[in-house]
Specification:
The radius of gyration is 21 Å and the shape is elongated. With 137 residues, the chain is mainly beta. The termini are far apart. The chain has 1 helix and 9 strands; from the N terminus they run H-E-E-E-E-E-E-E-E-E. Strand 7 and strand 8 form a beta hairpin. Helix content is 12%, strand content 42%. It has a single domain, classed as Tick-borne Encephalitis virus Glycoprotein, domain 1 (Sandwich).
Length: 137
Amino acid sequence: MTRHHYLVALLLAVALVGCRSTGDPAPRQAALDQEVLLAPGERVVFGPPQLDVQFVRVSEDSRCPSDVTCVWAGQVKVQLSIRGNAGEAEQHEITAGEGATIGELRVAVVQVQPERISTREISPGEYRVTLQVERLK
């Protein structure tokens, strides 16, 4: 090989190493009572104590579109994967405005975005969920 070929091979190897995937990103950290906005697949660890919460997906969105008048407001449910104290992750389906009790903590779904409109479907990757974890009194 000529010197030119070695240089090209070296540059290609460096570029491939720089582009490789490192796996799942590290979860963010948040304090109890802090609101956190997550996209599908993102994780946050609330604590102490350590409560690892991942937004999996929106499992139901029957909310009334914001540009329509409806008899029923509808609801939106999100699926969360929650792991407490390094235990096994458990799947929870929580309706927006409600929460789930995990030991001495309550995981609340504060808000789900975007709002629905009648002229457009929301793709799964567009959803964002605002979560808050608080200690039960």
